[in-house]
Amino acid sequence: MESFEQLLAESTRIHGHICAGQVIGVRMAIAALERIGIADPKGADRKKLYVLVEIDRCATDAIQSVTGCSLGKRSLRWLDFGIMAATFVNLATGRAIRVTAREEARALSESYCPEIMDKYQRQLHAYQVMPLDELFLFQEVKVHLKDCDMPGRPLRRIQCSQCGDWVQDCREVSIDDTRICRACAGQRYYQVVNNGS
Asked: Of 10, 24, 77, 158, which alpha carbon lies 20 to 30 A from 113's?
């Protein structure tokens, strides 16, 4: 794996700017991969790694950049918990580590870079040198991953009996022995204004 500096530079390029969240995500991913025994996440170990992120913020882009995991490869999953945390799973061994950014690290940043007045810049620099145990909480966890959530080809495709859309990866809803998509089951996030042709 590349050095922290190289990984941060790549993460910054992908994300579009450098920020404290990039530092957190890069350091979080490096530390977690080491703890679960993944040395080459974008190469030899790429099919062994699965990551669950709990927030849709800057750190998630950094985690994706370091691990090579992505939504499109189905090796990265977003759970909308709003917590600056991620769980890294070694699929070959079942070992999993949940890493949470410590809130108290924000205040601790003052002791690492007291000369930097802007709190965001101070955090950006402090998080790069702060010991891991002050920056993160590490928890060894067990994760149950459903077959339908795993990388690879869809296990099944079902056509919604109401709208005709095709639903993949066990995401359909069964109501009275009828399989429908989540939108037709009342979970629609959009409103149709033109039915198209």
From this structure: 10
